[in-house]
Amino acid sequence: MAASPGLEPLVVSSRQGPYELRFVADAGAELAASLAGTHLLVDRRVAQAHPKKLAVALAYPSVLLIDATEDAKSLERMPAYVGHLLSKGVRRGQTLTAVGGGIVQDIACFLAATLLRGIDWRFAPTTLLAMSDSAIGSKSSINCGGAKNILGTFTPPKAIWTDLSFLDTLDEKDVRSGIGEMLKVHAIEGPEAFDRIAVAYASLAADRAALARFLRDSLEYKKKLVEADEFDRGPRLVMNYGHSFGHAIEAATAFVVPHGIAVTIGMDLANFAAARLGLGRAEHYRRMRPALAANWRGFESTCVPLEPFLAALGKDKKNTATKLGLILPGPDGRIRRFEVANDDAFRAACAEYLAKGRREVLA
Ligand SMILES: NC(=O)c1ccc[n+]([C@@H]2O[C@H](COP(=O)([O-])OP(=O)(O)OC[C@H]3O[C@@H](n4cnc5c(N)ncnc54)[C@H](O)[C@@H]3O)[C@@H](O)[C@H]2O)c1
Ligand SMILES: [Zn+2]
After folding, report:
1. Would the pTM of this model clear 0.85, i.e. be above it?
2. 281 burial class (0-12, 13-18, 19+ CB within 10 angstroms)?
3. Cα(134) to centroid(ligand 2), Å
4. CATH numbers and ranges of domains, the chain
5. Residue 140 β-bridge partners
6. Of 48, 56, 212, 262, which one's alpha carbon is 20 to 30 angstroms from that of 163?
7. Are 142 and 151 in contact (CB under 8 A)?
8. Is 110 helix (H, G, I), strand (E, B) or coil?
9. What is the pLDDT of residues 205-225, one digit of tens each?
């Protein structure tokens, strides 16, 4: 079996037992060694970009190539996937294997949770976001009727093979999307952890070893929260830092902003809103801003229209009947959940922020 490139494996405890994420030098070899009884769901771009690595897997009889778009992970598309798997004779005791980013992962995880009342699945993540964040944590998130991530399950994989060489072909904006989630989990770990990754920011895209270390740390920080609260009832909710705002930015811009970059802007807006509403401090907003601004490069002039943004924010899963459930920094810079009135003061803060584009709002 291919050797791991020197990063410790990570074992995550879940209600369905432990599962292991291993760093491998050749995910193709891992896949080739475990093809019996599996059905592969593979991101089409990854298949095209890594034909040699994936040659054995792609020659297997049950392979479905998927174009990784938000539409592809909608409930409306599921019948086509189920039809394909049935035509390949899928049955209990078999597995699904996903090779791709968060989109292919969400499809495979959701199908594995529901098909035949549940079969096992495994994952070879190919984006930085999937490697550093979504691969662990058990969640599937599926779109329906135009609502993003509105359906889902908690279904841990049986195994994860992380092969960092997939990153060689990832677009730069998708690298920064993954870095956005890494910045997020470091901020949640605490201001000290955020400062560590912020100082190293410039080296992340250029130095694979530095990126790998921060990626491994990101998983370790997320693992603590996932193990404390696998089903997202309490402590894990902080993982949504930047996400209520980020999802609203994605929705209001028709998904032109990649997820982790929308989350990066969402964290800045969360820091700003906390300061404006007197829940957090302007100093925290200023401290995080340089690293966040470096990470949303290329999206400085993307306009986020206020009304669609506020409409999407009002539909967030974390809201209560009367309040917005927002994850914001408190006065000590630590990230926690607040219930915030969706009132004129809040809307004025959002309007002020969005009107400035990505320019600094609190001097
Ligand atoms: N279930 C979860 O826990 C969870 C967590 C975070 C995000 N998500 C979801 O994940 C999705 C975003 O996933 P993502 O950012 O990983 O990317 P993605 O799956 O959307 O892929 C982004 C782009 O990169 C391409 N790609 C993937 N791997 C590549 C590679 N190695 N080389 C070249 N191109 C490659 C894809 O074809 C696509 O064009 C969103 O739908 C988000 O909601 C789910
Ligand atoms: Zn996310």
Report:
1. yes
2. middle
3. 7
4. 10-169 (3.40.50.1970), 172-355 (1.20.1090.10)
5. 153
6. 262
7. yes
8. helix
9. 889 999 999 999 999 999 999
